[in-house]
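> call design_seq(struct)
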């Protein structure tokens, strides 16, 4: 049985998708709120690599992220990040645009979209949002 990673075209295709996603995040003014969420992290190069490693394992391929970090717990990974409903929707919209940029479509991609939608909404939290000015 083919993994979800195989069904979307393998690691090379996933790498192209992750690249398109973060290229959009870094260049599309509408995606700026997502980019700001990464300002307190390890930088975008690290984030790009971590996303590729995570999604590989998430889609049934080699679990690079687990090998490097010992887990694949999305909530733990994002525990320090204030994520609002609007952030989740913007992340999904930006990811959808990256899928379109890569010409990725079909049943496997629709299943991926549905899975990512559930994951994105699971991460919405009420952490203090350091992006918002305080009085």
């Amino acid at each position: 049985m083919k993994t979800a990673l195989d069904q979307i075209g393998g690691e090379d295709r996933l790498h192209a998708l992750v690249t398109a996603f973060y290229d959009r995040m870094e260049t599309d003014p509408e995606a700026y709120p997502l980019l700001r969420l990464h300002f307190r992290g390890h930088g975008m190069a690290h984030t790009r690599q971590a996303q590729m490693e995570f999604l590989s394992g998430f889609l049934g391929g080699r679990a690079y992220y687990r090998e490097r970090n010992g887990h694949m717990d999305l909530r733990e990974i994002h525990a320090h990040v204030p994520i609002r409903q609007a952030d989740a929707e913007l992340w999904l919209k930006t990811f959808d645009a990256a899928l379109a940029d890569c010409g990725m479509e079909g049943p496997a991609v629709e299943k991926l979209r549905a899975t990512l939608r559930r994951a994105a909404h699971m991460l919405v939290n009420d952490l203090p949002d350091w992006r918002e000015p305080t009085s």
